[in-house]
Automatic annotation (TrEMBL):
Species annotation: Streptomyces sp. SANK 60404
Amino-acid biosynthesis among keywords: yes
PANTHER family per UniProt: DIAMINOPIMELATE EPIMERASE, DIAMINOPIMELATE EPIMERASE, CHLOROPLASTIC
PROSITE patterns in alphabetical order: DAP_EPIMERASE (PS01326)
Pathway(s) of this molecule: Amino-acid biosynthesis; L-lysine biosynthesis via DAP pathway; DL-2,6-diaminopimelate from LL-2,6-diaminopimelate: step 1/1
Catalytic activity: (2S,6S)-2,6-diaminopimelate = meso-2,6-diaminopimelate
Positions annotated as active site in the UniProt record: 101, 234
Subunit-level organization: Homodimer.
Stated family: Belongs to the diaminopimelate epimerase family.
Documented EC number(s): 5.1.1.7
Identification of the protein by name: Diaminopimelate epimerase
Domain of life from the UniProt record: Bacteria
Taxonomic placement: Bacteria, Bacillati, Actinomycetota, Actinomycetes, Kitasatosporales
Length: 305
């Protein structure tokens, strides 16, 4: 039997003798990912390969790649191996490395259950943003302890089609700029990153959320994710939105002493975000595995040559 996790050189490998790479496809509120199981960290995933795999017309298609590696086998996660057996080596659709992906963690945990590595209940997942605690419920929802938000004081102004809004700087292990608008259509097409200033606030780029009220403790959002353009959902973005909304609404749990929960509508569904008085944030939403397959090494070689 061929080894589905065998490393291949996408340019020089002989496609006749190389084993295909196993993959799965999953999504969390329609934020979709290509999942590449690779327990021993044997598969090299350069940016060009990731971008080609995520191409929705010429590849498999996805908002990013979830590279599934044992923490002890990856240099970025070895220090976390004592807390979390599995490391989510996450890549954006353009191949760039990202610190964290909230929807990705839920799908990652669902994959671990699907593959028989874990059972329903509480597990830990290592990410570049630290170890995340995850609860796999029997009803299909997944709750992730997202940690605490950081709120740098330096915000930015975001501009689209002549309209400008102040954006709150929220860091969820990755950077976010949260702008409250009257109408989500004002965000424009979000094919490209909306301009913001001063640009120096986010030297490595930023995820930009546009937020409109839908009711008490209920908002809707659209997001431009760095490295991926507009996506159907962003888990860390939904958390950042809830944090910013709580401060705007005078409901900061650290001040009130009471947890606050926001329902956040994204294009692909709904997420529920709860922030506790100690600053810990929990995100709950669905995660689904929809398909399994193998990447043809001959295609990969031709696609990246």
């Amino acid at each position: 039997m061929s080894d589905p996790t065998r490393t291949i050189d996408p340019v020089t490998t002989d496609p006749v003798t190389s084993a295909p790479i196993a993959f799965l496809k999953g999504h969390g509120t329609e934020n979709d990912f290509v999942i590449v199981p690779d327990p021993d960290n044997a598969i090299d995933l350069p940016a060009g390969v990731v971008a080609r795999v995520c191409d929705r017309r010429a590849g498999i298609g996805g908002d990013g790649v979830l590279h599934v590696v044992r923490s002890a086998a990856h240099p970025a996660a070895r220090d976390m191996a004592g807390e979390a057996e599995w490391f989510m080596d996450y890549r954006n659709a353009d191949g760039s490395v990202a610190e964290m992906c909230g929807n990705g963690v839920r799908v990652f945990a669902r994959y671990l259950q699907h593959a028989g590595h874990v059972t329903a209940g509480d597990i830990a997942v290592a990410t570049r943003g630290g170890v995340k605690r995850v609860h796999l419920a029997k009803d299909g929802d997944v709750t992730v302890s997202m940690g605490r938000a950081r709120l740098p004081e330096d915000g930015v102004t975001v501009t689209v089609d002549g309209r400008s809004w102040p954006a709150r700087n929220v860091n969820m292990g990755n950077p976010h700029a949260v702008a409250f608008v009257e109408d989500l259509d004002h965000a424009g097409n979000l094919y490209t990153e909306p301009p913001y200033s001063p640009a120096a606030v986010y030297p490595d780029g930023v995820n930009i959320e546009f937020v409109a009220d839908r009711g008490p403790r209920h908002v809707a959002m659209r997001v431009h994710e760095r490295g991926a353009a507009e996506t159907r959902s962003c888990g860390t973005g939904a958390c950042a939105v809830a944090v910013a909304a709580a401060r705007r609404d005078g409901a900061d749990p650290a001040e009130t002493g009471t947890p606050v929960t926001y329902t956040v509508d994204v294009l692909g569904g709904t997420l529920v975000i709860t922030e506790h008085p100690d600053g810990e944030i929990e995100m709950t939403g669905p995660a689904v595995i929809v398909a399994e397959g193998r990447i043809d090494p001959a295609w990969l070689a031709s696609a990246t040559a």
